[in-house]
Design a protein that fits this description.
binds zinc ion, 16 strands, TIM Barrel, single chain, 6-stranded parallel β-sheet, 18 helices, alpha/beta, 8-stranded mixed β-sheet, 17% strand
Amino acid sequence: MGDLARRDVLSWLGKGALGAAALSVVGQEAAASPSGVTALVGATLIDGTGRPPVRDATIVLAGDRILAAGRHRDLPRGVRVVDVAGKYVIPGLWDLHTHASFFADTVAPLHVVQGVTGVREMWGQPETHDTRRRIEAGEVLGPRMVIASNIVDGPGAIWPGADVVRTPDEARAAVRGAKDGGADFVKVYSFLSPECYAAIAAEARRLRIPFAGHVPARVPVRDALAQHTHEHLYNLFTSTSDNADELYAKLRALPDDPADPNWWGRQSGRMERAAVATHSPARAAELFRAMARRGTWQSPTLFVERNMSRSPSSIVNDPVALDRLRYIPVDLRAQWQLIMSGRPERTPEEVAALLAFGDARMRLLRQMHEAGVGVVAGTDAGFAYVFPGFSLHDELALLVRAGLTPMAALRAATSEAARCLGLAHETGTVSAGKQADLVVLDADPLADITNVSRIHAVVSRGRYLGPADRARVLAEIEAAAQEPAEAPATPMGCCVH
Ligand SMILES: [Zn+2]
Ligand SMILES: [Zn+2]
C-alpha cells in the first residue's frame, strides 16, 4: 500500500476533474467541502486485500471514487477532514445472495445503513431492474446490484412465476430470454432435469452469460462445475457418499408430486442428511480439488439454514427478530408469515438433529475453503426472517465459526465477492481507483468478527452517512415499512430450506 503523498492530493485537486464528480454528501455532519474532496483520517484501515491493517490511515474520496488510501500525511487546504480516530475502516460489504431489494424505500436503504453497499439479487424481476435504475440515478439510497434472471426451474417448481422448462429446447430458450431481458446471469434451480440443466450450461456458454444458483437435486455436484456459484451447500453429502451413484439413480427416478410441491424437496433433503453416514472424505477431497481448479464458487448461506433449523414458533418469537421486523415492509412481513405458518413445529430432537447436520455441513465448508474453493458471503436476505443487512453480520460470524479466519470471512464479503462477480477492478478493496464504498466500525472486526455490526458510519457511492444520518435513514425506513405498497407479482424467497 503506497503512502499518501501531499503532492498527489494537490495534483488531483489541480486536475479539476473533481468538479464533475462533486462529492455527494448528506446530513449536517457532512457538509460538502469546496474542493469536493473528503478525507477520513485516523482510523485503522483493513483494506480487504488480506494485507495487515494500517494504523492512522487516511482515505481520500472524491465523487464515487477512492483517490488514495494509506498512511496519514498532511492534507492540503480545501479537503474536508472527517476525524475517525480510533475507528476501523473496511470495504463496503457485498451480500451475494439477496431477494426483495426492489423495495426501494425499505429493503434497499436497509442494506446500506447496515454496511451492505452491494448485493447480488438471486431472483430478477422487472421491479428489481427499476429499483437499480433509481439507485443509479441517485433518486433512492440503495446498494449496487447484480441481478439474476427469473428462476429457471423444472416441472416440480415450487415458486409461482418461475420459468419452468420441460425440454432442452425450452431450457435453451430460457437462457436466451434471460440474456435478452438484461439479466447479469441465469438463475438455475433445484428441480431442473439433468438434460435441461446440460442444455442451459451449453447455451449459457455459447451466449457468454454465467449461470448460478441451486445445483439441481438430480445433478451430482461434480457435473455442475461450470455453474459459477453453488448456493446453500446443497447436495454435497449425496455427491460425496460412497453410495453416490445409487442415490442419484434413486433421485432421478423419484417422481414429482403435483399435489404437494414440497414433497420432493423433503425426500431429497432426507436422503442428503442420511448420506452423512456414508460420507467419503476421499470423494470430498477429489470434488473440492476439482471445484478449486475449475474456479467454481460456494455461497454457503449458513445463517438461513441455521435459522430455519429451529421450530417456526421460536423463529417468529425471537426477540432480536421481533425488534428488526419494524424495518421490514408490511407486504414482505405478510409473505414471511405465510411461509412460517405453512411449516410444522419441530420437536427438540428434530431441531438437535438439524443443527448437528448444519455442523456437518460447516465442516465440509471448512474443507472446501482449505482446498482452495472460493467462498463468498450470502444470506438469502428477504426470505423469511433473514433480515437485509443485519443477517450478513450473522453470516460472517458463522463463517468464522465454520473455521474461516475473521480476515477470510471479511474477504468473503469484500475482495472475494468482487472477484466472484468479475468486479475486482471496481470494488471489494479500499484502494485508489475503486468505487467509494466503505464501512467505519467502532471496534476491530479482526479481533471479533461480530464487531462488523458495530457501525459508526457508511460511505456508499461517496455518500457519507454518519451516526445521525444513519439514525435518520433508519427512522425513515421504519416509517415507510408500515405503508402497504403495491403487492409485487411474485413471492420473494427462493429457497427450499
Ligand atoms: Zn435465495
Ligand atoms: Zn436458494
